[in-house]
Structures are given as C-alpha cells and as structure tokens.
Amino acid sequence: MYQNMQADDNSSQTIKTLQKYINNLQWKLDSKIDKNKHKYNLMGHYSNYILFAGYTPTKLYKTTNENNTTSTPRDKNEAQFQVSIKVPIFNNIFNSKGDIFVAYTQNSYWQVYDKDDSSPFRETNYQPEVFWQTDKINKNRYGLKTLRVSAIHQSNGESSPKSRSWNKTDIFMLFEADKFFYGFNAWSRWDEPYENDINNTRDDDNPLLTDYIGNQKIFVGFKYKRFKNTLTYQNDILDFKKDKGSIILDIILPSINDNYNYFFRYFNGYGESLIDYDKRIKRYSIGVMVANILWQGEKYE
After folding, report:
1. pTM recorded for the entire structure
2. Residue 161 preceded by cis peptide, ω within 30
3. Which of 123, 127, 112 is nearest to 70 (CA)?
4. How far is CA 129 from CA 14, 85, 159, in A?
5. What is the CA radius of gyration of the chain?
6. Does domain 39-290 have CATH number 2.40.230.10?
7. How do the pLDDT tens digits run along the chain, 301 residues long?
8. CA of 175: how far to CAs of 11, 112, 139, 152, 181, in Å?
9. Measured in Å, how far apart are the chain's first and last C-alpha atoms?
10. For residues 283 and 76, is the Cβ–Cβ distance under 8 A?
11. What residue ranges do the domains of the chain occupy?
C-alpha cells in the first residue's frame, strides 16, 4: 500500500511539473507574439461616415448622354456615406516591419430627399486596393509615423458613356507633432491599354482626370481627444499655374455617444466623385463619423 501511495505522489508531482512547464512555455510564447498583429480581423481603413445632409448650389445631373453632355437636373440636397475596411494578409513582410493589406472603400451619393424619383443613388464609387504599410518608423511624439504604398483601382461601375475608372500607384506619409499632424499623398496614374481599332486610341473613360484632380494631396490638422480638425488641399502642387484641384475642411466634434462623433465637411473644387470629376462643386455637409469600434488608432483620410 505504501508503494502505491508513493507512486501516486510521484505521478501527481510529475503532472504538476508538466503543468508548470507548459504554463511557463505558454507565457514565453505569449510574451513574444504580438497578438494584435496576428489577428486577421476586419478593420477600418479610411474614415467611415454618414453625411445626412449635403447642400450644393452646383447643378447636379442624373445622366450623361452619348455626346458627353449632361441632362436631367437632380436635387441639390443629397446624403453621402462612405464605408472603408481592410484586412491584413501578410505580417512583417520580408522583415520590413510593414504589413500587406487588402482593402475596399465605397462612397455613395444618395438623392434621399428626391421623393418624386424614388430617392435614387446618383453616383457610387468603388475602390479596391492592396497596399504595404508600416506604423513603426518612429515611436516618438514627433516625426514620421506612417508610410504606405498602394495599388488602387477606382471606378463607378457604369457602362459607357457614364463609365469612369482609373488605376494608380499611391504613396502616403503621415507626420505627427504632439497634437498636430500633417502629411501628403502623391500618386501616378497607370497608362490605359490601347483599343484594337484603326485609330489606335486608348481605352480611357476620363483622359483628363488628373488635369482636374491633380497628382498630390497635402493635409494638416489638429486633434485633441475626440475633437479633430483637418484641412486638405489637392492639386498638381508642383504646377502652381493650375487652377483646378480641391479644398476640403473637416471638423469632427465629440457627441454624447462614444460610438460616433459629429462630422461637418466643406468641399470646394473638382473630383468630389468620378462622375463629376470635371465639374467644380461647392458643398456643405453635416453628419456623423463612426468611432473607432473596429480598430485602434486615428484615421486621417
């Protein structure tokens, strides 16, 4: 009996030793793994918002006819919303401290107050992209925080003559200085393929797009807790003679609900949407910005 009791004690001690070893090994593994980096969860990409009311004195139109002229005026009051998500697919690619993501953004202009025409969607822009991004360049309060290189496709999903689409390579850099932030985007449009016709023309729905929206964007802003103010200027910044581009002023104010903030936007210029890229639009909008409930960190775009 004594030998059996001693064997039981030895077995119990062995089990405790194994449990201790396994727990210690698990602790070591947990301490080395960045759990957030290895969760392939859905995250927010650009800003997610709903602008319930947006007024513009500019004439908006329903269709574009075969001669590329517009017809059928639309309501000057419309809603706008944007949904933007991303998913990481490769972490720390080539030991670059950066990750590869795929993302999708949709921006829609909704004639919700036009009851006579059953409140149609006037325009929707679709933007899938793949990009490399690192947020580990500088851990100080000042300096470069984020670097991103993207391959982007954008289109409105329409057929000719309303079709609008293009592809580009985009570089984004974000800098922070305490409560202030600033940065820029620069992009290069891809050449469109040639049509197989007698004139050897390009398959391009909007050949003058970058003449109106430019090739660069700079922004500067201030943030404090849930308050944020951002001013964005987009144009061909290297060519000061151009009078196109756009200016955007975004003001975000905290609400009583942590899930969203009040959002005010002023837009003036070209390229608000693909269908209107060559029309100068001035718009005043009010709505809500969805808070960071799917992700951590600030959104500057």
Report:
1. 0.79
2. yes
3. 123
4. 54, 11, 21
5. 26
6. yes
7. 555 555 556 656 665 665 565 555 545 444 444 445 545 678 889 999 999 999 988 877 665 455 555 556 677 889 999 999 999 998 887 777 889 999 999 999 999 998 887 888 899 999 999 999 998 777 777 889 999 999 999 999 887 778 889 999 999 999 998 899 999 999 999 987 755 444 444 566 777 888 999 999 999 999 888 889 999 999 887 776 577 899 999 999 998 888 889 999 999 999 999 998 999 999 999 999 986 555 444 455 6
8. 60, 38, 11, 22, 6
9. 75
10. no
11. 1-33, 39-290
Angstrom distance (rounded) from CA 24 to CA 143: 39
User: Per the structure block, which two tokens stand in for 175?
Assistant: 């800098």
- For residue 5, give both structure tokens: 């009791």
| Residue 206: both structure tokens together | 């909007």
